[in-house]
Write a structure and sequence with these properties.
CATH class of the largest domain: Alpha Beta
Radius of gyration: 24 Å
Subcellular location: Secreted
Strand content: 5-15%
Keywords: Signal
Structural class: alpha/beta
Distance between the termini: 41 Å
Main location: secreted
Order of helices and strands: HHHEEHHEEEEEHEHEHEHEHEHEEHE
Bound molecules: zinc ion
Number of helices: 12
GO molecular function, one term: hydrolase activity, acting on carbon-nitrogen (but not peptide) bonds
InterPro entries: Glyco_hydro/deAcase_b/a-brl (IPR011330), NODB_dom (IPR002509), Polysacch_Deacetylase (IPR051398)
Length: 389
């Protein structure tokens, strides 16, 4: 145990925030209106041509009709959502794609319910066809298997922004976002068809195993202030948006901090994932005065292990994600996290995360109290140019 860290009162004025705004940050600024993917229409037309050819061959070979939806598929689709599955005509089908002609009552959700096992996967069809709704009689391609799970195109790469909040309330400076602004921001995400995904979803994406909606965004909230429970949870509930709350465990139960009972309620909401933000919130790359190599290494081990063990003991969660205090890490910190089985860790280097992002050095973008809606929108970096900085 390091005496200096343990003895430090909290919240320490210098330690209130996780950013180091004085540092030069490598920043990538995307175009404010990312261009639509030029490849997808081509892929789509190729698929139509290819399936059209297959269909023609099948008809010539004596097949009366393309394969219809199986009873098993219908059962699974209905169970997965509330939208009745689509009943329009299948123009062509293989094990990879379906070409489907929508009926007047069809929606992306009803088509997803029929072919993709659940209406929630409607974005697969929307992203592939570059549409936000279907038009009656206008065929759409339904990819049955992931065609580009990492979102890599000739001119752009998909990126996933991770937003970072701290406190919620009125007044109190840059690190405090007003409840009204937070609600405006999440309302805007919902209205504009952004998909707020869980941080855990990024792990499979980075391995190339699971595609993500083109407009994916992750919400994280650092430190563990009580205002998360009071102000953020109701807005998250309103939209059913998930979020990760990174807590440093020495803070839990302190004056302005969340209590264990509140953390249990957050975890029980099914929306909030409680994960680790160190034990003491010390800067992990700075040594205390007189700290030896051995003491430093032991301290890092404790900052990685203690919050995981304590949170897992008190809450029904697995702790595999870590937010570095002040966003700082070095090789020794990464080794300590690896030993403690952490899978993802976040910095405060701004920008979206592409397929090549390092899982333990993910970029994250601060949302400050003085950001208006335009500033918020400018921070949603869902793509970057190939070869861009
Ligand atoms: Zn922090």
């Amino acid at each position: 145990m390091r005496a200096t860290a343990a003895a430090r009162p909290w919240p320490h004025p210098r330690r209130r925030r996780c950013t180091r705004p004085h540092l030069p940050l490598r920043r990538w600024r995307p175009p404010s209106h990312p261009s639509p993917p030029s490849e997808e229409p081509d892929v789509r037309s190729q698929a139509i041509r290819w399936i059209g050819g297959s269909l023609l061959a099948a008809v010539l070979a004596g097949c009366a009709a393309p394969p219809a939806n199986t009873p098993q598929e219908k059962t699974r689709s209905i169970a997965a959502g509330t939208t009745p599955p689509a009943t329009g005509e299948v123009l062509g089908r293989s094990d990879r794609f379906v070409i489907y002609k929508p009926e007047p009552e069809d929606t992306l959700r009803s088509i997803a319910a029929r072919f993709l096992g659940g209406e929630d996967r409607y974005w697969v069809i929307g992203d592939f066809n570059n549409i936000s709704r279907v038009e009656t009689g206008q065929p759409v391609v339904v990819p049955l298997k992931a065609t580009n799970p990492m979102g890599v195109y000739a001119d752009r790469i998909q990126t996933v922004p991770i937003l970072c909040y701290h406190r919620f309330g009125n007044g109190g400076g840059k690190m405090v976002v007003s409840p009204a602004n937070f609600e405006r921001q999440l309302d805007w995400l919902a209205r504009n068809d952004y998909h707020v995904i869980r941080l855990a979803d990024l792990a499979a994406y980075l391995k190339g195993e699971q595609p993500l909606p083109r407009r994916s965004v992750v919400i994280t909230i650092d430190d563990g202030y009580e205002s998360v429970y009071r102000h953020a949870l109701p807005v998250l509930r309103k939209h059913g948006f998930p979020a990760t709350v990174f807590v440093y465990t020495d803070f839990i139960g302190a004056g302005e901090a969340l209590s264990w009972a509140q953390l249990q309620e957050l975890a029980a909401s099914g929306l909030v994932d409680v994960q680790a933000h160190s034990k003491s919130h010390r800067n992990l790359i700075e040594r205390a005065a007189g700290e030896t190599d051995a003491q430093y290494a032991q301290g890092l081990e404790a900052e990685a292990r203690a919050p995981r063990e304590l949170i897992e003991r008190r809450l029904p969660v697995r702790v595999r994600h870590y937010a570095y205090p002040f966003g700082d890490a070095n090789d020794q910190v990464l080794e300590a996290l690896n030993r403690q089985q952490y899978q993802l860790a976040v910095t405060v280097n701004p920008g979206g995360n592409a397929f090549f992002a390092q899982p333990l050095m993910l970029r994250r973008t601060m949302i400050f109290g003085d950001h208006d809606l335009e500033a918020f929108k400018a921070r949603l970096q869902i793509s970057r140019a190939v070869g861009g900085p």
